[in-house]
Design brief:
Blueprint: E1 5-11, H1 20-27, E2 35-41, H2 46-51, E3 55-59, E4 62-66, H3 72-81, E5 87-93, H4 107-116, E6 121-125, H5 132-138, E7 146-150, H6 157-163, E8 171-175, H7 182-191, E9 196-200, H8 207-210, E10 216-220, H9 223-226
Parallel strand pairs: 1-2, 2-5, 5-6, 6-7, 7-8, 8-9, 9-10
Antiparallel strand pairs: 3-4
Length: 227
């Protein structure tokens, strides 16, 4: 299969037409896949909740019920069969921190994907599954050039130390990451390799700290812009 881009959108009130096995089978044949985009929007009200389909799957940690067929097994299929995957964009809206019932996969599956494929661009929005250990693992990503983190509450100054260690990172965007402060941004300054730095609505970071960290710096305190 010569599919180069795969977009998976799941919104409240819409049934997930893929079975977990069916989706895994499709992904396992996408050897030319370069771009993966996954957007999951949680149901907006109780009526939508009733309409949501549930998938049940088995992993090494036992059985799980999810509201999407995109599971760890799907990510393992990508990791093993998609050697050209370079762009990963994962966006979640309105999800509870209690995964995998909301999102359907765990950090273990996500890291298997990132560590097996030559991912150059990674975008994570409201990724509740992504914690300090996940951020640490990114520091070993040999191909990662562009990283965008939005509403990633696990990102702290300690995590910024690991981000500064990503070998090829040249473009970094932080949006609504309130646990990062000027101290964390100082870690980036010591790395001295960023071409572009975007910081939007990160309450602990000042303009003074961001200036000079990269060749191009965009800084904003506007919440509406960040979201």
């Amino acid at each position: 299969m010569n599919l180069q881009k795969f977009e998976f959108e799941r919104k409240g009130g819409r049934y997930d037409l893929f079975s977990e096995i069916g989706l895994r089978t499709v992904l396992g044949k996408c050897k030319a896949l370069e771009n993966l985009s996954l957007e999951y929007v949680h149901a907006l009200n109780d009526n939508d909740m009733i309409a949501l389909s549930r998938q049940r799957y088995y992993s090494e940690d036992g059985y799980f019920e999810t509201r999407t067929s995109f599971t760890d097994n799907s990510l393992y299929a990508l990791a093993h069969n998609c050697p050209m995957l370079q762009i990963v964009d994962l966006k979640f809206t309105g999800c509870s921190p209690d995964y995998p019932s909301e999102i359907g996969f765990t950090q273990k599956g996500f890291l298997a994907l990132i560590q097996s494929c030559p991912v150059r661009v990674l975008v994570l929005s409201t990724a509740n599954f992504f914690d300090h250990e996940g951020i640490k693992a990114l520091s070993f990503s040999p191909h990662l050039e562009t990283l965008e983190l939005i509403l990633c509450h696990a990102l702290t100054n300690a995590g910024m130390c690991f981000i500064a260690q990503i070998p090829c990172l040249t473009n970094l965007t932080l949006r609504v990451c309130h646990y990062v402060t000027d101290v964390g941004v100082a870690e980036l300054r010591r790395a001295c390799k960023l071409e572009s730095l975007v910081i939007e609505y990160c309450g602990g970071v000042s303009l003074q700290a961001a200036q000079g960290v990269a060749k191009s710096v965009h800084y904003s305190k506007d919440c509406s812009v960040a979201l």
